[in-house]
Design brief:
globular, four-stranded antiparallel sheet, 6 strands, 267 residues, Alpha-Beta Plaits, alpha+beta, two-stranded antiparallel sheet, Arc Repressor Mutant, subunit A
Length: 267
């Protein structure tokens, strides 16, 4: 239970200070723990260093600012504590694999590669399981509430562990390619959201099962196609489950439905 509290406090502190100068020691001091302990918690729960998590959250928010506001890329860079546009662009491309100026053309309907994680402790949970249940999709609420009863396609990467064994960056690239495949198959009025470490949902707005299944098949047609990481060819395939936006929208139950649909597709 203690680790949940520490990690939640650290993540909330980071979120409040995304647009401020922040050091790893600042976060550890705020949580009244040693920096080494906090680093171990982040690596166990998220598979990322504290610095890596901050960078990914800043780049996610920066991408949202670029796509949804009239801010210039320079202003966005300064907002997230980058004094050099070149350094910002390099970091942005490291996370998104596209330059900031090209982001809109590649991920127009995507809500974010690294949403904020809201840990919620339940008896018997470990940090990893709590993370899977509690990624924040609240920003999509207004979109979701208008889609009650429509079909949702829920995707997961096959054999991501093997890709991550090559490199964490290789895993990040696989996740982005997954999002890109889903996004490219989606219509303009659909939305892609992240619902887990390597799991995404496509909110289709479709009410006919046959249409939802055809869209799923369109994405899965690319199963087995390779992506390149440092001259290594990595075949990438996805699972896809199908569920619906519930009439009574409760996030916890909706998450369970989405993850269960993925489990069912693996059977």
């Amino acid at each position: 239970m203690k680790n949940f509290i520490i990690l939640t406090e650290a993540i909330n502190f980071i979120e409040i200070n995304l647009c401020e100068p922040i050091s790893r020691q600042d976060i550890a001091s705020h949580c009244y723990v040693s920096l080494s302990m906090l680093e171990k918690l982040f690596r166990y729960a998220l598979g990322l260093s504290i610095k890596g998590y901050i960078s990914r959250r800043r780049m996610t928010q920066a991408a949202r600012d670029i796509s949804k506001t009239n801010m210039s890329i320079t202003d966005v860079a300064m907002k997230y504590q980058f004094n050099s546009l070149e350094v910002f662009s390099r970091m942005f491309k490291r996370v998104w694999y596209v330059a900031p100026s090209d982001f809109n053309n590649k991920f127009e309907r995507f809500t974010g590669i690294y949403p904020k994680i809201n840990y919620k402790y339940e008896e018997g949970d470990d940090l990893y399981m709590a993370r899977r249940k509690s990624i924040d999709i609240s920003e999509a609420y207004d979109f979701l509430k208008n889609l009650k009863g429509s079909y949702v396609l829920c995707f997961d990467i096959q054999n991501l562990t093997q890709i991550n064994n090559i490199s964490v960056k290789a895993g990040d690239l696989a996740i982005l390619e997954m999002a890109s495949r889903i996004d490219s198959a989606a219509d303009d009025d659909m939305l892609v959201i992240r619902i887990g470490g390597d799991e995404f949902a496509l909110l289709t707005g479709l009410y006919e099962y046959e249409e939802a299944k055809a869209l799923s098949d369109k994405v899965l047609q690319k199963n087995g196609e390779v992506i390149l990481f440092e001259d290594k060819e990595m075949p990438l395939s996805l699972w896809c489950g199908i569920t619906k936006v519930p009439e009574m929208l409760r996030y916890g139950e909706f998450f369970t439905d989405m993850h269960n649909s993925i489990k069912e597709s693996k059977r």
